[in-house]
Amino acid sequence: MSSGTAQSRIAARPFGQRYAFVVVSVIFLCLLIAAGLRSAPAVMMLPLEEAFGWRRDVISFAAAVGIFLYGLTGPFAAALMERIGLRRTLLGALALMSASTGVSLLMTQPWQLVATWGIFSGVGSGAVATVLGATIVNRWFKTNRGLMMGLMSASSATGLLVFLPMLASLAQSGGWQPVVMAVSIAMACLIPLVWLLVPERPASIGLVRYGADADDVPPASPASQGNFITHTMDTLRRAAGTRVFWYLFATFFICGFTTNGLVGTHLIAFCGDNGISEIQAAGLLSMMGIFDLIGTTLSGWLTDRFDARKLLGVYYALRGLALFYLPFSGFSGTALVVFSIFYGLDWIATVPPTLKLSNEAFGDRSGPVVFGWIVAGHQVGAAAAAYFGGYMRELQGNYDLAFQIAGMTAIIAACLALLINTRNTRFEPEPQAA
Q1: Minimal CB count within 10 Å: which of 76, 178, 183, 286?
Q2: Per-residue confidence (pLDDT) for residue 378, from 0 to 100
Q3: Would you call 72 helix, strand, or coil by DSSP?
Q4: Alpha helical stretches, state H, 275-332
Q5: Which of 45, 184, 205, 29 minimizes the C-alpha distance to 121?
Q6: What φ, ψ does residue 424 adopt, rounded to 5°?
Q7: Are 392 and 148 in contact (CB under 8 A)?
């Protein structure tokens, strides 16, 4: 037994099944700080432009690479967690993120920004993302999954709430370097917490999932044996043969396009173009974080009780209206507060119903890996919007059309969500081991 598992067994004794909430708390913190890392390029954009003279589309490209790899890594990370262990995967990812962002202090060329904040931090953060939350919820909870996934999803919003004002203040007073140091140190501080408090699974410390009977045996994943890359790609092949996968993939692509890709990456710069300081603009994102914490948690509660397809249809329609509104708002204080509240409630409220639909269609065994591919669609959309926003800004001199196009895509996603049918998906059964 490893020392980390032994420590977790001792810590779990007074909690019993409720130790699942300790694990969720630590993972929530990991997801929160990883969200701070992914949001940091938004506050670094203007300081990097001033310090190096790099064009905004160049900086946006580095952010887009990071977001793309953040999504692409997810399904492989889900399978790797089954193959070599969740703790090892998570600890390695935290170390990679801390090291890659720290090394960026030495950068002098745009390709170094792409390598550190794009490639390496993108791969690392991809293992500390929505798919990690889904894996933890499936492993540690038999009941209340929608609510817990809502809380885990809300961690990214809380990351905006906690980090962006602080990072914006650091950027405004000291440039981009203090932002890098703060993120790198925060990631490093998570490593001992995970090592001591997060066991591999409930059975590792003599427990069962929260809400489960004493004889509960969670479904085993075939990724725990054999080549995890082969399993991940084979799961994608089988899922891609179903219509429901492509509906979920398309709607989540648009989800990423309209949230962290466009708004998360470019809202501060958009506000800057309209005479609003970085700290004030970061405050708007923080306000979105507060309301998304409420909205996503409520969405998880609603997902346990109502039709997930209809919830998605409402969420995407409201998001599209908010994006249409922003360019015409006049950027007055009142208008921006209204946008932040309205948009914030809906920021990542789509995650719990999307995960529920994925589990219904593909089952608990393959669901996490399939969901990882769906999340990859989210991040491909986000990467496209991150670059698209910068390109449109350079082309037109403003962000107006970019936000209006994003609003139209959200309305399309609302329509697609209502077409999803998780019954009779014709998802081929997993091949049985010989």
Answers
A1: 178
A2: 85
A3: helix
A4: 278-303, 308-325
A5: 184
A6: 50, 50
A7: no
User: Which amino acid is residue 109, in one-letter code?
Assistant: Q
What are the extents of the domains in the chain?
7-202+235-417
285/298 Cα distance (integer angstroms)? 19
Which CATH code fits 7-202+235-417? 1.20.1250.20
Q: Which of 128-137, 187-196, 424-433 has the lowest mean pLDDT?
A: 424-433
Which two structure tokens, joined as six digits, stand for 291?
Answer: 């309301």
Task: State how far the Cα of 114 lies from the Cα of 400, in Å rounded to an integer.
Answer: 27
Question: Which amino acid is residue 313, in one-letter code?
Answer: G
Helix axis angle, 19-52 to 263-273, nearest 10°:
40
pLDDT recorded at residue 69: 85
Q: Is residue 325 exposed (0-12), middle (13-18) or buried (19+ Cβ within 10 Å)?
A: middle
Give which of 245, 266, 277, 270 is closest to 428, Cα–Cα. Answer: 245
Distance of CA 216 to the CA centre of its chain: 30
How many Å apart are CA 16 and CA 286, to the nearest integer? Answer: 35
% residues pLDDT > 70 (the chain) = 88
The CA distance from 324 to 431, in Å, is 47
Instruction: Tell me the residue type at 405.
Output: I
Q: DSSP string spanning 157-208?
A: HHHHHHHHHHHHHHHHHH-HHHHHHHHHHHHHHHHHHHHHH--SSGGGGT--
Structure token pair of residue 315:
């969420």
Alpha-carbon gap, residue 328 to 197, rounded angstroms: 49
Residues 6+ apart with CB under 8 A from 296: 150, 151, 153, 154, 157, 347, 348, 349, 351, 352
d(CA 80, CA 310): 33
Of 135, 186, 148, 179, nearest in space to 375 by CA:
135
Residue 183: which of 116, 112, 270, 123 has the closest Cα?
116
**Average pLDDT rounded to a whole number, residues 290-307:** 84
- CA angle at 195 for the pair 194 and 200, rounded to the nearest 5°: 80
Q: What would the pLDDT profile of 5-26 be if each residue is shown by its tens digit?
A: 655 554 555 666 778 888 988 9
Token pair 């703790």 in the structure block, residue: 87
